[in-house]
Amino acid sequence: EPEVTQTPSHQVTQMGQEVILRCVPISNHLYFYWYRQILGQKVEFLVSFYNNEISEKSEIFDDQFSVERPDGSNFTLKIRSTKLEDSAMYFCASSPGRVVPETQYFGPGTRLLVL
Amino acid sequence: AQSVSQHNHHVILSEAASLELGCNYSYGGTVNLFWYVQYPGQHLQLLLKYFSGDPLVKGIKGFEAEFIKSKFSFNLRKPSVQWSDTAEYFCAVTLNAGNNRKLIWGLGTSLAVNP
Predict the structure, then answer these.
(1) Of the candidates B101, B103, B106, which has its C-beta nearest A100's C-beta?
(2) Is residue A55 over pLDDT 90?
(3) CB neighbours of B25 closer than 8 A, spacing ≥ 6?
(4) DSSP letter string over A68-110?
(5) What average pLDDT does the structure give for chain B?
(6) Measuring CA to CA, how many Å separate A2 from each of A50, A95, A97, B25, B59?
(7) Which of A76, A107, B25, B74 could form a disulfide with A4 if both were Cys (CB 3.0 to 4.6 A apart)?
């Protein structure tokens, strides 16, 4: 069964550094998402992406964040200058994108630690 | 703002016990409801969902949930749990408005089943 994959599984970075989190969505899916979960808190929506542009973004998704689909398979989340409070588990998800509502399929997550 | 509440944060049961995990949402309009499960070391996966129709929905592994609109609830049930049901359970909703796809999450319930 096709799965969403994410790399790396863990990333440690210094405050102020740029990080890129990578995701490979399910191949025939058209909608892509990023969510994050700070330890002990709820999973929060960051952004959705469709047809090479942002479809919706949350208040969290400020100018420090960007998303890109650099090729036909990868979907990336870039944090330009990391802050301590960016430490979280970041989940990528994808969905077929043909109807609303529909199921989102999640990757295993990237645990980001900002020191 | 719209939100999802899960009443039980940590549940410990013995095998064969019955399970009910509470989920309530706050939104006056129509919602789509999901239960996701995350087994230890694995990614989030869909347990069951409700979009419309019969408010009693059956999911994988013997789980079911009932949507009670008047109570804004979507409680998850299983008549007899197994050790392999040890996992984190998340309730989530999307608002049935236009092309809205953003999942709004509960805090999650950690279930431990003792053999």
Answers:
(1) B101
(2) yes
(3) B2, B3, B4, B5, B31, B33, B72, B73, B74, B91, B93, B104
(4) E--SSS-EEEEESS--GGG-EEEEEEEE--SSSS---EE---E
(5) 95
(6) 20, 12, 16, 31, 20
(7) A107
Cβ-based neighbour number of residue A113 at 10 Å: 13
Per cent of chain A over pLDDT 90 is 90
Identify the burial level of A57 via C-beta atoms within 10 angstroms of its C-beta, where 0-12 means exposed, 13-18 middle and 19 or more buried: middle
Average pLDDT rounded to a whole number, residues A51-75: 94
B108 contact residues in A (CB cutoff 8 A): 42-43
Give the Cα-Cα-Cα angle A39, A42, A45 (nearest 5 degrees): 110
Q: Is A55 on the interface with B (CB under 8 A)?
A: yes
pLDDT of amino acid B96:
87
Q: A74 — phi, psi (to 5°)?
A: -90, 155
Give dist(CA A105, CA A25) in Å, integer: 9
Instruction: Confirm if A42 and A58 have CB atoms less than 8 A apart.
Output: no
